[in-house]
Structures are given as C-alpha cells and as structure tokens.
Amino acid sequence: MRSMTGYGSAQCSVEGLELSLEIFSVNRKSIEVNCSLPREWQGAERLLQEIIRKFVFRGKLNVFLRVKQSSDEEGLVVSEEAMQQTLNRMQSFAASSKIDFNPDADCILRLMISLRDVGGELPAFERYEDALVSLAENALGSLIAMRETEGAMLVQDLEVRIDLLLKFVESIAQYSVGTVSRYQSQLMDRLEQSGMELDLNDDRILKEIALFADRCDVSEEITRLNSHLRQMIECLSAQEPIGRKMDFLCQEAFREFNTIGSKANSLDITKCIIECKNELERVREQVQNLE
C-alpha cells in the first residue's frame, strides 16, 4: 500500500559527466509526469516517462535531471579563452565609449562566476542511456520506499476509522428495530387524543402503518453499507493500487448514509448518521492520498 506523496533522488558519475535526478510526487487522480531536463537531453524525456510509468500508477510527479561535466580541478572552473575574449570585448567597449576600464580582482571574480557554467554542449544522451535508466530506477526506489512508509501509516489510520464506522452502522441497525411498533403506538395515541375511536385492525390504520414501515425500512441500506465498509478493509491489505476503488466505495457509502438519514424517524439514528458522515469524510480525505 502506497501513499501518493514522496521524494526520491539519485546521483552518479559516468564518463566525464555528473548526473543528478530528483523526483517529487504529490496527489493526483491519474498519473502526470513533468520532466525538467537540460536542453541537449530533451530527447530523454520519453525514456524517463516510460520508466516512471512502469513503477508509479497515480500521482503528479515532477522530475528534475541535472547534468554537468566532471572536472578534477577544485574551485571555480572556467574557460581561460572565454575569460580573455570577454575581457577584450569589455576593454574594446570601454575604449569606444571613452570609459576608464581597469579590471580589479572583484571584477575578475564576478566575471568568472558569470562564466563558470559556460562550456561545450553536453554529449548526446543516447551514449549514457544505460546510466540514465539505472539512475532513474534508483531514484524511483527511494521514492517508492517513502510512499510505502507513508502508505503504511495511512492504512493504520483507515483501519481504525472504518472499524468505527462499522460500529456506527451496527448501532443504526439496533435503533431501527421496533421503529414500526413505536410509530403504531404513537399513531393510536394521537387518534385517541383527537377523540377518534378506531380499531387497530382498521384497514386505514393498517395501510398507514404499512406505508410508514416501507418508508423507514433501512435494512437494505445497512446491508450495502456493511458490504462497502468490509470491502474497504479488504482493499487495505491488497498489493495493487486501490485508491480509485476506495474512493468509489466512499462515494457509495455516503449515498447510503444520506438515504438512511432521509428515512430516519429516530433522533438516535439521526445523531449516528451525522457522526458517520463526519467520520466517512475523514476516511475520504485519507483515501485521496492513496495510490
């Protein structure tokens, strides 16, 4: 069981290049992968998309690949030729503009910083395809590990909440027992108070009681609710992605609770329905985080 929130990264050095890959993942109903790659390696996006979609099935993923050429030198590394050409242009411009130009250490340092990333273009990514695949798999491994850790915590929370919902449904079933007989007694009391003397076996009374019994019967809704909630518990132990199925079951459970609420003729049932809907909303919010 995985959450959709996570972070993974990996680095490697290969044939004069240093590669760094980061993957950020957040919630999304479907899967969306956005890649930020060096200009020369834009063609690698399709490869990364294919690898990621083999391991991740839901969520919005932002992928950042950084590639730079390795250097054995320490400190600022810039092209001396580029430095000299730039200084020559600056001197030429200053002379033509009749500006005194006497570069000092601070000027040279600023120039080196501005030119430190200037160099030759990166080689074609196809030469490094195997290294890139391995890098992506390592980053995905750390991403998935984080998603599984958070997923385990979500499962524990959901198990407690769904168990509480099952207890509420059991209470609703108990409160619904005797509803018809109570209504029958209340009906007869109101008729007696109004001065009407009717036999309990009067067809009109029997018809009214039958209609009420049909309107307030929630046995079918309770059966379906128990089924939905127990399916949720089964989903929590599944190995495949279950986020969409859990979301669907939450929607169906909401519908059953609303139906019971509209049929309720008991204050106790109404109170239970309010608590159930509040708790189910918390379940739904957690389910939005599941892959």
Task: Give your account of this protein's structure.
- A four-stranded mixed β-sheet has the order 1-2-4-3.
- It is elongated and about 115 Å long.
- Helix 4 (129-176) packs antiparallel against helix 7, helix 5 packs across helix 6 and helix 8 (243-263) packs antiparallel against helix 9 (267-287).
- With 291 residues, it is of the alpha+beta class.
- It has three domains: 6-72 and 120-146, Ribosomal Protein S5, domain 2 (2-Layer Sandwich), CATH 3.30.230; 80-115, no CATH class; 148-287.
- It has helices at 45-55, 80-96, 105-115, 129-176, 179-193, 203-216, 219-235, 243-263, 267-287, and strands at 6-14, 17-26, 31-36, 59-69.
- The N and C termini lie close together (8 Å).
- It is 60% helix and 12% strand.
- It is built from nine helices and four strands.
- A hairpin with a 2-residue loop joins strand 1 and strand 2.
At a glance:
The protein is an alpha+beta fold and 291 residues long. The protein has helices spanning 45-55, 80-96, 105-115, 129-176, 179-193, 203-216, 219-235, 243-263, 267-287; strands at 6-14, 17-26, 31-36, 59-69.
Terminal residue distance: 8 Å
Poorly predicted sequence stretches spanning 5 or more consecutive residues: none
In percent terms, what proportion of residues is strand?
Answer: 5-15%
Helix content: 55-70%
Order of helices and strands: EEEHEHHHHHHHH
Average pLDDT, rounded to a whole number, is 83
Based on CA atoms alone, the radius of gyration comes out at 34 Å
Q: Which strand order spans the largest sheet, edge to edge or round the barrel? A: 1-2-4-3
Main sheet summary: 4 strands, mixed
Shape: elongated
Structural class: alpha+beta
Number of self-contained structural domains = 3
Total beta strand runs:
4
Continuous helix count? 9
